[in-house]
Structures are given as structure tokens and as C-alpha cells.
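Checklist before submission:
- one chain only
- standard amino acids only
- sequence pasted in full

Submission:
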Amino acid sequence: MRWTFLAGPAVCLVLSLPCPVRAQPSEAEPAPARTTVVRGRTPPPPESPERRDPTGAITVIDARERAGEARDTAELLVGSVGLAVQDSGGYGQSKSLVVRGASSNGVLVFLDGIPLNGAGGLSDLSLIPAALVERFEVLRGGAGARYGSGGLGGAINIITRAPGPNLRTSGEVTYGSWNTALGHVAATGPMLGGQALLLVHAGRSDGDFAYDVDELPAVDGNPQVSERRARNNAQGGGALLRYRRRLVGGSRLDALAELSLENRAIPGTVQNPQSTGDQELGRLALGLRWSGVLDGLGQGSARGFFRRDGLEVTGHIPGAGGAQRHSVGGVELEGRRPLGEYQALTVTVATSGETVTQEEGAQASSWWRASVMAMDEVRLFGGTLDVVPSMRLERVGPYWLLSPKLGASVELGRGFGLRANAGQSHRAPSFLELYIRQGTLLPNPGLKPERALYADAAVTWRSGPEDSEEAAPRWGLTLGGFAALYENLIAYELYPPLMARPYNFDTARVWGLELEGEARPFSWLLASTGYTYLRTENRYGDPRFFGKDLPYRPRHKWVGRVRAGPDWLNARAEVLYQSAQLINRTGSLDLPSRTLVSAGASSTFLHGPDLTLSVELKNLLDVRTFDFTGFPLPGRAVYVTLAVALEPGASPSSSSTREPHDSPASPVP
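Returned file contents:
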């Protein structure tokens, strides 16, 4: 594997440790244990998602509550309402998200605020191992005003594990079906006057499961033939380094460095399977952030980030295009100043540069982007009603983008509340769509940005302590609706004789409902549910497509989950139902509905050190599902996980299998 494109930044990383990401309020502030963010009178921490978007449809998913479940990042997210995962295989194979009907390249994904969307506008969740994740902050709905170009359907910030003040070491190893093996080791504690965390991870899987297929489906009574999924193998590894330090005057410095390398087979499609070919992928991400209080001016922060991605296809795949490198780096300044007791103004100024190079034909292109965002928070009627207008003016390469938003929330008493949002978001065409030729895919430098007009509203109810991790009962329910109009959507069209070129021609309407519920009646019992109804309609004038559902957008999705028991022995069960979805615009082909049942159990049978044994059974009913290329997805699988954690000096009764955690944080553009 050739990873020389990482050599220069890696040397700089070694010479400048501790290297960089973002700040949190204080070490004593707990992360939210609830999953749905519900507004209240208690002021949220400065870096919480509800502070960055006070009226947004936000869900916080605590990955620490899924310990021992042998889930990847996409599986941890799929239970959230409004989201659908596009999965192309088992461990290490590409996984992306559709949020509220927006394409995967219309969803922004961040790693501790560092943007992860690649040169094609997509972000591959399979490259973020679950071992790194502490929680997810999911914003559904247009995110252009707060997070910039690309946020047509929403934004997701993946918060990594945080360093802790006490020396603590931990490790975990998982082994299961299809020779799948995953593991990581981590250490955290005081260092250089602050706190540091180092985590190293690795994994592999053959992915060669068996399945039955009917080779002549048009013939009644035709026997099924046993096949084995080939070219579904992957292996990879990486490391995470985080450092934070309290500075003189109470300000904070946070740093992050993350490295990821992966190699995975290319299966092709069912109609054109590949017998050779692999993808080599790599990422180096660096971030540094200062935050604190500026005398007489309010709260402020300054941050910088850098990310370099590498993609190389081996095995002489036709039209592969050679090695590709994508680099992006930038800085952001943000300030928040109270304007009296019931008003606050937030202003953000950001600039970044982006470049992509492709070995074949020495193709290269670069541009810069700059933006200014202002958000005014006004609390009326003694703080009962919040009105939050915001606007971002952005220059992305040759495009000027304006993304306004108006949000409002009101407290109705007895735990009830209302929130609503309306606005506009954009996605500028990607480098690949504009400038880079890839095999038979031609670029089109005349593309226009995609646009989304959106609105949503919801009623919320919450009972129990708002900001507590204690055992007190907590209940929550959110019911809302949303609608969006997507214009100038970019799609590829045949360009004779054998080429295809992207054009602006698609328009689509999307509307639906979202229901979230959570119950914690006892300290040892957690139940949650989520339902999404998504209706999409293609408005392109061609009668073959007009009025049809958009491909890969299931109309219904329901998830129910229960976890019960103390640390020494607990059990869990999850049911995921997803309705059928189209795989082409004419509606002539579809993927059938699926009901996936999973179950598991964990036991922390020893303390000091903590030893936890977990068993996970996925797809208990062995339901056969398929990806968007027609290949089958994994069936029934079993995984066993052993985790160990040691904190010298801690008493067995106070020892916990949970890693230290951050206070809430959120993405930056």
C-alpha cells in the first residue's frame, strides 16, 4: 500500500504533538444521557447542539449506552428518525446516509467539527470505527444557515471519546461470523499540564457468507442455488489522539489528530461482478481550537482544521481514474455576545481552501470558500418564546450562496413545547461533477448549485430531570412534520456514444412525519422507539419519472429498542422495520421490505479491573436483504466481545466501564 500522500502531514504531526480539536465548557459537565434534545429554561452549555441551533430538530445518540453491541457507526445511527442507511456490504464496505429524502451528498458529516465530505460530496461512515465514537449529534432539516454548503437534508457531528483527568487504560476485542475480528486499546490521563487520550484500533472481515439465489426468477418452481458472497472482505486500522488543557483565565485549548487506513475489495455489481480490484483509502485529520470568555465581548472561539483523504484503485479496473487526493483546511472565528437579559447575537466568520488531484491525466483543481453567519436569539414574554433568525452568506468557488433561516420555540408548560423552522439551503457542485473526468463520467463546469426550501414543526413533551444522569425516571416524546422542495438536483445523463455527464434537471418534493419516544422508568430499564414516514415525489417533466418515489427512500421505518438489567447482567433487543424502496426512477425495480431483529446480553463480572463479556446476535430471523447494486447483505451473525478497563487507585465500587466523556459539542462549517 502506498500512503506517501500522508507522509508530510504525519511528520508534522509527530514533531508538533500534542496535536489538535474543540473545546468543551468544563470537565465537570456531564454529557446528555437523553436522546432527543428538548428545550428548557436551563441555559445549555456553550458548545451544545441546541446552542448552535436553538430551534433545530436535533437528536443526540449516546454511543456509550451501546457498549458491547458490536455495531458499526452506520448501525448506531440507523435507529434515529429521519435517517436511512445505504449499505453496500459487511464490515468496512461503503455506508452512507439519506436524511429527510436528501441525497447522501446533501448531508454534512463532521468528526469533532472537521468536515468529512469528500471530493464527490459524499461521506463514507464505514471509515469511522465505532470504537472512536462517544456520541452523535444529528440535525435534521436544512443546515445551510448554520453549517454551510451541502446541508440540504441535515448535518451529523460525530463526537469522539474525550480524555479524562485520571489515569485509565482500556481495551476491547470482538470476534464473530465470517472471521470478523475487531479490537482497540486506549489510555487516558494527565499529560503536559492537561489531559490526553490515545486510542489505537484495527479490524478485518472476510465477509464471505452463504446465501440462496433463484437464477431464473421468471420460471415457476425453479430451485434456488447456494452461492457465497465474494469480494466482501476489508481490513484497516488507525489511531486517535486528543488533548485538552485549561489555560490562564479559564479558557480552553483542545487538539485532535486522527489517522485512518483501509483496504477493501471491489465487488462490482450483480450484472458486472469484478474478479479483481481493491480500494485503498486513507485519511489524516487535524484540528486545534481555543475557546473562552473575552472581557466585555462575551464568549469566543478560534479554530483551525486540516484533512487529507487518499483513494487509489488497484487491479486494473476500467475507468478507475488513478490515485486521487483530496485536501481541505480552514479557520473559523466565532463570537457570542449577550445583548441584555433576553437577547444574544452570534457571529461566525470562516474561510477554507480545498483541492483535489487525480493521477490520471494529471488532473487537478482547487478553490476557496469564505462565509459569514449571523444568528440573533431573542427571548420574549419572560423567556417563554424564543425567536431565532439566522443567515449565512457564502462564497464557494465561483458560486455565491445565501442561506436564511427563521426558527421559533415556545414553552407551553407541564413539560410541553413547540418548535418550528423554515429556510433555504444550498449544495455547490462537487469537484468531481465540475472538473474531474472519471472513466466514462464526464465533468460539467456549467452546473448550478442545488437548492432546498424547507420547513418543519414539532410538539415535544418531557417529564423528569432535564439535566441529570442520575437514576430518576425520565420520559420524552416528540411528534413533528417536515416538508422540502429540492431544486436543480444534479444527475448524470447519457452523452453519446458511451459517456455520461451531470446536468441540473431534477426537482423533487419531500414531506413526512417523525415520532420519537423514550422511557427510563427505572435506573436499570431503557426503552425507546422511533417512526419515520417519508413521502417523496419526482417532479421532473419526463412522464416516465413524474410523480414516482425517489429511489432508495423507504416510506416507512420503525425502530423499537429495550435494554434492561444492572451492569453485572443486562439484556437488550431491537427490532428495525423498513418498507420497500425503489432502486430506479421508473419504479420498475425495488428492494423488498425488511424486518431485522437483534438481541444481546452483557455482564461486567469482575471489577478492578473491570471485565465485561458481551454476546450480540444480529438478524436473528436470517432475513435476506440486498444493497443498491443487487448484492445480498449479511444474514444471521453472532459476535462475542471482551472488554477490560483499569483505573489505578479507583475503588471497585466506583469503577465504571464507561470512558470519560465530553460536554456537548457541535460541528463547524
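Reviewer check: Residues 129 and 289 are 23 Å apart (CA to CA).
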